[in-house]
Amino acid sequence: MKFLKLKPMLRTWDIPATISFYTDVLGFTCKTYDEEWGWAHLNRDGIAIMISGPNEHEGDTAPGFTGSLYITCDDVDDLWTSLKDRVRVCYPIEDFDYGMREFGIYDNNGYLLQFGKPLL
Predict the structure, then answer these.
(1) Is the separation of the CB atoms in 49 and 22 below 8 Å?
(2) Running DSSP on this structure, what letter comes out for residue 56?
(3) Beta carbons of 9 and 50 less than 8 angstroms apart
(4) Residue pair 58/42 in contact by the 8 Å Cβ criterion
(5) Dihedral sign, Cα of residue 84, residue 99, residue 69, residue 67
(6) Which domains does the chain have, with CATH numbers?
(7) Phi, psi (5° rounding) for residue 32?
(8) What pLDDT digit, counting tens, does each position of 63-113 carry?
(9) pTM here?
(10) Backbone dihedral region of 32: left (phi > 0), alpha (psi from -120 to 50 degrees) or beta?
């Protein structure tokens, strides 16, 4: 048995604004949005993210996630240049001793998104 893919589901209280952030700012495409179900499916370059509204049976009261989404990309410097003045930055682009050049931003819900490229 093997795992085949990971598709994170991020909860938000404003699905249209979250779809807008991921499509307009990060270049994702919204493949499916079902307003009645409170759910959307977004993708870009083989990466998929699902967005959902609050999950009442779990008692959600605000977006909450203690980790981050880490996306490896082929041109982290170009991405940084295109995003840095349009988003809330967690940390600017930097080379790290563990072999990555990366930066971190927050989405419109406060989820941490990190983008990096291996140093060669």
Answers:
(1) yes
(2) G
(3) yes
(4) no
(5) negative
(6) 6-54 (3.10.180.10), 67-120 (3.10.180.10)
(7) -145, 135
(8) 777 889 999 999 999 999 999 999 999 999 999 999 999 999 999 999 999
(9) 0.90
(10) beta
